[in-house]
Design goal:
The chain is of the alpha+beta class. Helix content is 23%, strand content 38%. α9 (573-594) crosses α10 (647-654) and α11 (671-689) runs antiparallel to α12 (691-708).
Length: 882
């Protein structure tokens, strides 16, 4: 992994400087590295000894030379990344350097990162600096140039290229191999082709039907770009379908254009700082990528990637729509349907410390993030971080290694930091990153409601007069700070600077001991500091012209106190003050249901918008205040509850428990957040507005669930409605059907068991990412009954049960016969309402859990009518047997 440690580098470092020392000694070190660069480029190992101290042993010299020299080097770059003094050495006489060696040959490139100790004799000249030792070494290997072989072209007839669930057939056309130093790693094909994609899972076939009109996608294509591992090429391509022909210059140029356009989209690394070339990684064995230009559906990308939990995908690039995403047969057999994305993490972030200056009017941010992390893998030589592509990483340092180099992964909102020495399992590591750039605000999208046409505004000038006060939201989909690619729980401190006149609401409790104006670092702005001692899934902030209009504190069921604050845009101060009583009541109510409140404070940020909606990161809830003369209508939306004006604050505050304190382990489990928050909002509606409002919400839950269930199962998460760009489908199923499922479960188990089960689930999973199976086990433990079938049909299935019923009225009793139609069996709690001649009503819950259920209900008077599912509590279709 690296050369031996020498005494000079065994000394304790005083600390990593952020820039080379500006002294005459610095010129000598630069000269040393420039000479070393010339030697590496020339491959002149024999001259290396001139730059080394004679105390280095021959073995140490040989190891160092083997690591930095390559044969046939066309270009070399030796880059000093960081410099720090070494304790115990006279000032200015010895430094520890982090140095990167970039070498490229005709077909390959390599980056080596290592620690180098340099020293000069006391009073020595600028050219007397020598390398005194090296410590550790890591490298980025396998960077390749790709090219079209200009001397090779094939004519193809009925060429077939297969991957799991995909068949590409080039009926007639031309083929150009894409070559790297390791062999053929891809193809450019064009001509008359047919693409056939048939996903194995029934759920994915349903999504494909929405996209293409059929459960198998069959479409013509004229161009395809294929990437595979060189070791897979011969297995995938039959040479009998190819005939060598003379190279056609026009078609060659076309193939080169396809490579230039499609190639950098995948398996490429941005090395702009070191090289102007485009450098590629080789796909691992078993991986497969096809960029297919179809006539009907535009550019489609099929991918089989072993690094992903769901390793097969079909993606439409122009509209950025995921058409299919699922595990391969082998992956499914190995791990089962359920998975935890945390299993793919290389490290845990323990704490974030983020300082950012935000210019909302320019949509610009300058940030510095310090992350304290712990390694989960056996060894790590590089760290991957998520950060928006629009942001430039301007510096990466660590206390252990000083300045390091970030490598951007193209089109992935990610970058890699290569380390000079490996990190081992359970190692703690602190890294500091600075960054800046333009970043657009996040649209709350699915947290809001759907625009359904123009409203009734009569004056066209009203909209301009009532332009909403702008707000600038950076949250979980913005990637506005360097973060773990797979979200995890961590504590955090945020120090946010904004221009005068603006305020900030962010993740954490506002630290009121910090002056709003920082005369040292931000003389033209206001500084807000937020501390979160309780773990968060992600960090968020919203900047706007805020006024604090109310503050309060409520005691929760656990005896702890939760501080509540309301910040609003200036025109919304009256609305904001009116929200406080609801916010207090909601927080107290939810804490009674679950036993505590997860965070010590919560701030409601009331901002202006054309549509209502909300977003709720940890410690705060952002609510849209719809303008009184808004030109849009939102009545035809799953989240439009006109009889419950507190719906949005009730739903968003519920996310402090469901979605934040309790996270979801992958997108299939989003209903644990949204469905639970929706149901808790309905519970609060019942408490604050009465049974009639609660019943109205149940009817709406059922109506949307029945109407949209054929769009996919609840477990499809954010992908519901994604293909049609209709977020109402997501809310209809993940929000409303998810809430209806909880209510049906409550009715089957009874209130005591259900709410005790919720408390058990919350207590067991608090500050963790969880899923349906964990919830099922908690409910089974509390109820003592199996619930696998219940969750299988309601969460993973799309079918709405059909029940036929008949009623028989006799003296002293009513018999109701239910029969489930179709092949599947459901657990359906059905309310049977007995209406007596004197106007009384009697509700009886009948658990329909078998094919035929025929209970007799004892009556207490003359029965005038029998009604089934009058309360809409059962998500089912009923037909009377006449």
């Amino acid at each position: 992994m690296g050369s031996r440690l020498v005494p000079l580098l065994a000394c304790v470092l005083l600390g990593a400087s952020l820039a080379p020392a500006q002294t005459p000694a610095a010129d000598g070190i630069e000269l040393l590295l420039a000479r070393l660069e010339q030697m590496v480029q020339a491959g002149d190992r024999a001259q290396l000894a001139q730059l080394l101290e004679p105390t280095l042993s021959p073995r140490e010299v040989e190891e160092f030379a083997d690591n930095i020299f390559q044969t046939d080097v066309l270009r070399a770059v030796v880059r000093e990344r960081d410099r720090g003094p070494i304790e115990g050495e006279p000032p200015g006489s010895a430094y520890r350097l982090v140095v990167e060696f970039f070498t490229e040959t005709a077909g390959r490139a390599r980056i080596v990162t290592t620690l180098i100790g340099v020293r000069r004799p006391e009073g020595g000249a600028a050219d007397s600096w020598r390398i005194a030792g090296t410590q550790g070494l890591t490298s980025v290997e396998g960077l390749y140039r790709l090219r079209i072989n200009e001397s090779v072209q094939f004519a193809a007839r009925n060429l077939t290229i297969e991957a799991e669930d995909l068949l590409l057939t080039l009926q007639e056309g031309s083929v150009f191999p894409v070559e790297g130093e390791q062999g053929i790693t891809g193809l450019v094909v064009f001509g008359r082709g047919i693409m056939r994609f048939t996903p194995a899972p029934q759920t994915e076939r349903g999504q494909l039907r929405i996209f293409s009109g059929a459960e198998t996608l069959t479409t013509n294509f004229d161009t395809a770009f294929i990437r595979v591992s060189p070791s897979d090429y011969r297995r995938l391509i039959s040479p009998t379908s190819l005939t060598a022909v003379a190279v056609n210059p026009r078609e060659l140029r076309r193939a080169q254009e396809v490579l230039a356009e499609e190639g950098p989209k995948s398996f490429s690394i941005d090395l702009t700082e070191l090289s102007k070339e485009v450098w590629y990684l080789l796909p691992p064995a078993g991986d497969f990528l096809a960029e297919v230009r179809t006539r009907r559906h535009g550019n489609l990308t099929y991918s089989r990637s072993g690094a992903q939990a769901e390793d097969i995908s079909l993606f439409e690039r122009e509209r950025r729509r995921t058409i299919a995403l699922y595990p391969s047969a082998a992956r499914l057999a190995a791990r089962g349907r359920s998975f935890n994305e945390d299993d793919l993490r290389d490290y845990d972030v323990l704490d974030y410390n983020v300082e950012a200056t935000v210019a909302p009017e320019r949509e610009f941010i300058e940030g510095r993030a310090r992350l304290r992390l712990r390694v989960r893998n056996e060894a790590l030589t590089s760290l991957t971080f998520r950060l928006a592509d629009t942001l430039t990483v301007t510096g990466v340092t660590s206390m252990e290694h000083g300045r390091l180099m970030p490598l951007r992964i193209r089109n992935q909102n990610s970058f890699i930091v290569n380390l000079p020495t490996p990190l081992l399992r359970d190692d703690d590591f602190t890294i500091v990153m600075t960054y800046s750039g333009r970043i657009p605000p996040q649209d709350i999208e699915v947290e809001g409601v759907q625009v359904s046409g123009q409203g009734g505004g009569d004056d066209p000038g009203v909209a301009a007069f009532m332009t909403p006060e702008r707000n600038f939201l950076l949250s979980n989909r913005s990637y506005w700070y360097p973060q773990n690619p797979i979200s995890d729980y961590a504590t955090a401190t945020l120090r946010i600077t904004v221009p005068d006149g603006f305020g900030v609401v962010a993740s954490g409790s506002l630290n009121t001991d910090v002056p709003l104006r920082d005369l040292v670092t931000a003389p033209a702005g206001r500084v807000f500091v937020f501390d979160s001692s309780d773990p968060l899934r992600y960090l968020a902030l919203v900047v706007s012209r805020f006024v604090r209009v109310a503050e309060s504190a409520v005691e929760t069921a656990s005896g702890d106190e939760v501080r509540i604050a309301i910040d609003t845009n200036p025109r919304q101060q009256g609305r904001g003050r009116a929200l406080m009583s609801s916010a207090e009541d909601i927080v107290k109510f939810y804490s009674e249901l679950l036993g505590d409140a997860p965070y010590e404070s919560v701030t409601v940020a009331l901002v202006e918008n054309e549509l209502p909606g909300g977003h709720s990161p940890g410690y705060f809830a952002m609510l849209n205040a719809q303008l009184p003369y808004s030109q849009v209508s939102w009545r035809n939306d799953p989240a439009a509850f006109t009889g419950f004006p507190d719906f949005f604050i009730a739903h968003e505050l519920a996310h402090q428990w469901w979605g934040q304190a309790i996270g979801w382990r992958n997108y299939h489990e989003q209903w644990i957040s949204e469905g639970f928050a929706q149901y808790f909002a309905a519970l609060y509606a019942q408490r604050s507005r009465g049974d009639e409002t609660f019943a109205d919400m149940l009817r709406q839950f059922r109506r949307w669930a029945v109407a949209e269930s054929d769009e996919g199962p609840v477990s499809l998460g954010y992908r519901l409605g994604h293909i049609k760009d209709d977020t109402r489908v997501f809310r209809a199923l993940v929000y409303n059907k998810g809430a209806a499922v909880l209510h049906m479960l409550r009715r089957l188990l009874g209130d005591e068991v259900f709410f005790n089960g919720l408390k058990r689930f919350y207590a067991e999973q608090k500050f963790q990412k969880t899923g349906t199976e964990d919830f099922r086990r908690a409910m089974e433990a509390e109820s003592g009954r199996p619930l696998e079938r219940f969750f299988e049909q309601w969460i993973y299935g799309t079918t709405i049960p059909r029940l036929r019923y008949a009623t028989t009225i006799a003296n002293g009793g009513v018999t109701v016969r239910f029969e489930q139609l179709g092949n599947l069996l459901f657990d359906v709690p059905v309310t049977v309402t007995i209406v007596y001649a004197d106007g009384r009503t009697q509700d009886v819950m009948v658990p329909v859990t078998e094919r035929i259920v025929s209970p007799t209900i004892v009556t207490t008077g003359v029965v005038r009518q029998v009604q089934v599912n009058r309360d809409s509590a059962a998500v089912a279709e009923f037909t009377a047997d006449r």
